[in-house]
Specification:
3 domains, about 375 residues, single chain, Immunoglobulin-like, Cyclophilin, alpha+beta, globular, disordered N terminus, 23 strands, 7-stranded antiparallel β-sheet, 10 helices
Length: about 375
């Protein structure tokens, strides 16, 4: 119980690390390449105000400039950081963080380059297309001779097709937000990682903001895989069968965020990397989830509510299909429910709470 209090105090302290009146607000969502990237600086605060441009994932500060406001309270990041936005900013996600008196203030602004996407294919389709396009009869015969199991293994692989030309058309710019998930067992807080999977994060924000996850169950709980390694808990299908979608799919992204305890990732059809929709899972260990790296899109991290994640993972399960003794033992007998999910202001990027750990989970009392 003491650890819970310490974590809560740390989270509140991070939220209040600087003057709550400071904030950066993008003037619009999309900015074309070479256009001014404008933010509105709001709030009345004391102290020198600067903006730091920070590299997503590493936290490296790429530059910091004093805020010089126009009469309408607008600053132009492209004028302040033209060298950065025209260089590394056209390749990866950056954060604009306001600083007041040397301390980070308010939620950062995500600056996401709009890049020509790489296209993911399942390994089976990629092999067939490659053999057909090259006229390689031997390769075609090899594919025809594969067993169903071999074909399934091949289909589970992800193969990338690079665009002929990869360009940055501009930037998608928005205020960073955490996702707060209220469940029947308590509240979890998820920090999004647009630096790892920008399009996935943006689509999930839309689902959360639109109320999609209201009344949705955790329909799959796998406390341990067949080797006894803690695995995952899964939710995101309103019907609770594991087959539901939001009516659209999110293309696969090459996330560099490794699957571990508390890492949130997209569930999908095993033979279609581009079938990501609304379903997500949360990892319960690195040992059980390392094999998912590169095969599923990790997009967030649980930074609060480790006791809730623990409680969900401990819910008793039964057969997925009660009439099939050979079906997976992963269907919760009394499914925990997502009461609702909402977007809340993120902490400053320099004061971000760490992802929860298994060690914390083991020491937390409910």
């Amino acid at each position: 119980m003491r650890l819970k209090v310490v974590l809560l105090v740390a989270l509140v302290a991070a939220l209040c690390a600087a003057d709550a009146g400071a904030a950066l607000e993008p003037t619009r969502l999309y900015f074309g390449v070479d256009q001014p990237v404008t933010l509105r600086v709001v709030g009345s605060v004391e102290g020198d105000r600067t903006i730091a441009l920070i590299e997503g994932g590493t936290g490296r500060v790429l530059g910091e400039r004093a805020v010089t406001l126009a009469d309408d309270g607008i600053v132009d990041l492209s004028a302040m950081f033209g060298d950065v936005l025209g260089g590394v900013g056209r390749r990866q996600v950056l954060y604009a963080q306001e600083m007041v008196g040397g301390e980070a203030a308010g939620a950062p602004v995500v600056i996401e380059p709009m890049l020509t996407p790489r296209v993911a294919m399942d390994g089976r389709t990629a092999a067939i297309v490659a053999a057909f396009n090259s006229g390689d009869r031997e390769a075609m015969e090899t594919l025809r001779g594969m067993s169903e199991e071999q074909m399934g293994t091949l289909a589970g692989q992800v193969v990338w097709r690079e665009p002929a030309v990869r360009v940055c058309a501009g930037f998608r710019v928005y205020s960073d937000r955490f996702v707060e998930i209220e469940t029947s067992l308590g509240v979890m807080t998820i920090a999004m990682r647009p630096d790892a999977a920008p399009n996935t994060c943006f689509e999930i924000r839309g689902l959360v903001g639109g109320g999609f996850y209201t009344g949705v169950p955790f329909h799959r709980i796998v406390p341990a895989d067949r080797y006894g390694r803690p695995f995952v808990v899964q939710a995101g299908d309103p019907g609770g069968t594991g087959d539901g979608t939001p009516g659209f799919s999110i293309d696969f992204e090459p996330s560099g965020l490794g699957h571990d305890f508390g890492v949130v990732s997209m569930a999908r059809e095993l033979d279609d990397p581009n079938s990501n929709g609304s379903q997500f899972f949360i990892g319960l260990s690195r040992e059980g989830c390392a094999r998912l790296d590169g095969r599923f899109v990790a997009f967030g991290e649980v930074v609060g509510g480790v006791d809730v994640l623990n409680a969900i993972a401990a819910v008793p399960v039964g057969l997925r299909d009660p009439e099939d003794a050979g079906s997976a033992m992963d269907r919760p007998l009394d499914p925990p429910m997502i009461v609702g999910a909402r977007l809340v202001e993120a902490t400053p990027i320099t004061a971000r709470p760490a992802r929860v750990t298994r060690e914390e989970a083991a020491g937390v009392e409910r």
